[in-house]
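Suppose you are handed a protein chain with no further information: no name, no annotation, nothing but its sequence. What can you learn? This example shows the usual starting point.
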Amino acid sequence: MRLALFTTAFAAALFLIPATAAPANSPEVRTIANGAALDRGGMHVKLEFTAPGTVRVMKWTDGGSDKKRSLSVVQSASAKLAIKTAQTESAVTLDSGTLKVVLNTADGTIRFVAPDGHTLLQEQGPAQFSPTGLKQEPKAFSIRQDFKLAAGEGIYGFGQSQDGVFNWRDHSAKIVQANTAAVTPVLVSTNGYGIFWDNYSKTLWNDDAKGASLWSEVADNVDYYFFAGPTIDDAIVRYRQLTGAAPMYGKWAYGYWQSKEHYHTQKELLDVARKYRDLQIPIDGIIQDWNYWDGLQNWGSTVWDATRYPDPKAMYDELHSLNFHAMTVIWEALGPASDIHKEMDKRGWLYSPVGWAGFKYYDAYNPAANDLFWEYVRKNIFSKGNDAWWMDSTEPDIVNALTKDAHEYEMKKVEDNAIGSFARYLNPYSLVVTESVYKNQRKDTDKKRVFILTRSTFAGQQRAAAATWSGDIGADWGVYAAQIPAGINHSMSGIPYWTFDIGAFSLGCQGGVFANGGKDPAYQELYTRMFQFGTFAPIFRSHGSETPREIWEFGEHTPTLIKFDTLRYRLMPYIYSQAWQVTHNGASIMRGLPMDFPNDPAARDVGDQFLFGPSLMAAPVTTPMYHRPPEASVLATGPSLFHTPDGKKEGLKATYFCDEKWEKVCHEAVEPAVDLYWYTGWPEFIKGPKFSMRWEGKLTVPVSGTYRFDLKSFGPKKIYLDGKEVAHNYDSMGSWTIPLQLEAGKTYDFKFETNNAVLGAFRAQVYWKTPAAHARDAAPLTVKDKTREVYLPSGTGWFDFWTGKAMNGGQKVSAAADITTMPLMVRAGSIVPMGPVVQYATQKPADTIELRVYPGANGNFVLYEDENDTYAYEKGIYATIAFHWNDAKRTLTIDPRKGKFPGMLAKRTFKIVIVGDGHGAGIDDTARPDKTVIYDGRKTVVALTR
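A reasonable first move is to predict its three-dimensional structure. Written in structure tokens, the prediction is:
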């Protein structure tokens, strides 16, 4: 997408806030609390500091308004700030001491200036307003503001995107939710600023040679917040001050989570938990996905199917006795037989479209509906012992709208929600629904911290204790590689907790290519690499369909999985301390390199590495080294491939039926292939949600050999050759047939049929693998050099975590990366606490701690500890211990402990290791620490010899 994205929106009746005005409309500047306002002709601009480093910009035109209901902003009105105001004939300057804002009184454009006088960002031209052209919002405007970016400036954020983009310079972004897109209109810059564009409708970012711009489809005004740096971290801190802090999770949430789609019975789930404890594989959480209720008619009922889950409370109790925490899925989509559906329907709180499983979504923009939802959730799940929530499909995905275009199209057809149209409030459903669960659980108890996992995100959602996962991705190396910049940009949008389906949700569909199953060695190699990456995601979770995901299911790779799982737990003191930094200081765990190295141009486009906390740099391996992955299938099409049944025309006879039983013909055509992708509406001849279709003809393959059909549709998928149905040996959201031997020149009678029985998005496609593709799949993969190139940012030294070898920054190195290793570097000056090996996060206090010091620079670290759960930390019931490394003097200073909490260790042991080549390296305890210190809470200075 380039600037052309904006063309349609502005082609009709485009007008600008006027750049000049007649003398009668001379500039009028008014002083307002913490800012200034300008009215000139039809132009209205208001600047208001909400904090010394944050300014709100509002612009509107006659017919618009400065009134705004913000769902994201929670900061209360600011006390009077010390804002200095200066005015000339052409400009008004507001100076908070942290940020200067210069308003051009002639055209209303704004320049943001750092205290040292350099320009952080400048608007390019006045704001633009045009009619929406939407029947839902006839009085509103589409809005746009252009900006002039600096040469070489890096732009990051906009939530999670799956297109592999890291730096948004010279790119376009569509900020619309979808299954695998979790978006938020927040950006940050290497120039040391951030922007929150406070709009909930479809929004577009574009950057090209003409400049950068933000456009939104529905608004009464331009409304955005500018955050001064000077660092990206500072901008994110200001964003969270505006939209809410991210609460801490229980310590258990930062451990390993086992999930699958789905555990079928109470016994199956408990057997998995018992086996983990029997095998002594570290784990904290297990997840119950969908279908614990009684059939599709009871979708999202919150009521357990008594035949398969006879005693949910006993299930939770046993999990707790095994020191597991349980997460249970809840849906805002409610099946018609459920009591909650009936009660919501009686009160008029359900949207009318019937979703893909026969459910209806409730109106989460209605606070009363949210409270009713919680009543059912509390009674049937929370009261029985559940610990965490999986809130699936919070875009919401009513009708399998897998693309942004489809989601936009379908949601705009839904009737207005409680506060307005879905054209205006397209994106923040997940914000309002997760926040309601967070607030309601907090009302019930402060003894258990809220932990929510959800598939969508929006600005402010961090305050709801909501972590985002990247949606229903497919098993493919390219899809996996795209997860890394997706997660980094999500974090750089100010929402710190993110994860993904380790192993991918689907093996052979939804972008996945591994239709040979989970025991395919090529898939197991991919799984192992994804698991290694997941070890350093803020939330560590395996999930997916079609094949078991438990750690012991991966044969020769199981020891490697256990190795990385163990490393996660050894790093728990480091991770939990970073979680406290997130909550108390607005920090980020998953950190793009530009956050720490904004002045290193070479780091600005490195989207396949990231810092995990301030010290560890992960470089996941994203290419296969041992087994060649299967090629993706291709559309079955081409010259002379298909002919109509009579043989007279190229293509297939396509017959469409206006019922789901292939009886009432409503359209016929000749089509070159089976390739329907109806994601933004159906053709006119389809009159209702129930329809079916059949393609028939002659198939003549060009080459003899092995073929395999890949059938993509949501409904049943049947393919026939010479009158016989071809069997499938892979069935999920897509389906693959068994391999077939076909002869070149021979003609086969071909038929494919499917149907649809739900509203909305639909597809029917026939892909295949040809003999040439099968031959390429069979060729051995030879990668002799099992390494990965890693960029070491400049301005600091680095250490290889696995060897302890020191390296200089500002260079690329070839790091060891065999299947048992993922490159992991540590920044010089780091202090990394490593706890004992445990089976779960709270098995015992983190004692003894091996304190690894990476020399070459001064360093600091604050160890945080509390009761591991409850909200007592909000009342100051926790303890911190600060460490300081003086590199020149070779001394480690341990400050007096601050604070206390029940169960705190009065004395503890620190084994101090000065890392070097072969010393203090890898997962295992260092055999000979440099010093052992018994710490009793008083200041301790440890001198270490060279």
